[in-house]
Design a protein that fits this description.
Elements lengths: L3 H11 L8 H10 L11 H22 L3 H14 L5 E3 L7 E3 L6 H19 L5 E3 L8 E3 L12 H19 L2
Antiparallel strand pairs: 1-2, 3-4
Helix pairs in contact: 1-3, 1-5, 3-4, 3-5, 4-5
C-alpha cells in the first residue's frame, strides 16, 4: 500500500494555517485532501482537533529539519498512540478492494490517522530527511521529498525559481557586474 498520499495530508494541513480559521476553510482542506464526502458531518471540535494536530505536525517537520531523527521518531510514535490505525477493506468508485486506514470516528480522527501513518511510513521506508521545510526565505512551507536522489529543497517550483534568481543576483552583485 502506497501511503504517500496519506502523508500529503500532513503537508496540506501544515501549509494551510490560514484556512483553519473557520468551518469553510476546514471543508476546503478536507475537499482538497479528498477526505470530505457529501453529507459528512464536520463539527467545531474537528476544527479544534486539526489545529492541534497541525501544531504537532509542524514540530515533526521542524525537528526533521534539524536532523534529529530520534526526536522525529519519538514525536511520530506519540502521535501514533494518540491516533491508532483501524484499517478496513474498502471498495468504491469502481476500484478494486483496497485498504483504508480508518473509516470510523470523527472527521478529525480519520484525517489524523491518515496523516500520521503516512508520515510514519515515509520515515521508515525512505528516511527522516524526506520531510522537508522550504529553504526559500521566508517560506518554510512543508514538503515531502520523494525524489530518487533526495535533492528536493523547495516546496514548489515558484520558491525554487525565486531562490535561484536571488542567488544569481547576489553573485552578480558580489562580482560587481
Amino acid at each position: 500500500m502506497d501511503l504517500t498520499s496519506y502523508a500529503e495530508l500532513a503537508v496540506l494541513l501544515i501549509n494551510s494555517p490560514d484556512r483553519l480559521t473557520g468551518m469553510d476553510g476546514l471543508r476546503s482542506i478536507l475537499e482538497e485532501g479528498n477526505r470530505y464526502r457529501p453529507g459528512c458531518r464536520i463539527m467545531r471540535s474537528d476544527l479544534d482537533a486539526l489545529r492541534d494536530l497541525r501544531e504537532e505536525l509542524v514540530a515533526v517537520f521542524e525537528t526533521a529539519a534539524l536532523g534529529d531523527e530520534q526526536a522525529v521518531v519519538d514525536r511520530l510514535n506519540s502521535l501514533l498512540i494518540q491516533h491508532p490505525v483501524q484499517p478496513q477493506i474498502s471498495g468504491h468508485d469502481g476500484e478494486r478492494w483496497h485498504l483504508h486506514l480508518t473509516e470510523g470516528g470523527r472527521m478529525a480522527d480519520q484525517y489524523a490517522v491518515g496523516a500520521v501513518m503516512g508520515l510514519a511510513t515515509i520515515v521508515t521506508d525512505l528516511g527522516v530527511d524526506r520531510l522537508g521545510l522550504c529553504q526559500a526565505a521566508p517560506c518554510r512551507r512543508a514538503y515531502l521529498d520523494t525524489s530518487s536522489n533526495r535533492s528536493r529543497r523547495y516546496c514548489s517550483e515558484r520558491c525554487a525559481s525565486r531562490a535561484n534568481v536571488a542567488a544569481y543576483r547576489a553573485r552578480k552583485k558580489v562580482s560587481g557586474q
